[in-house]
Amino acid sequence: MGILKSQVVPKNSGAAFEVEKGRRLRIAGRSIVDFVAFNLRDLMERFDQARTKTNQAKIFISTGDILYSKRNNPMLTIVADTFKGGRHDLQKGMCSRKRFEMVAAGIAKRVFAEGVDLNPKRAEAIPDHGCWENLSTALQPWNIAPDDVPSPFNIFQCMRIDPDTGIMYDTMTRPQSEAYIDLRPEMDLLFAASACPESGRGQAIRVEIFDR
Ligand SMILES: [Zn+2]
Question: With a cut of 70, which residues of the chain have pLDDT below it?
Answer without folding.
Answer: none
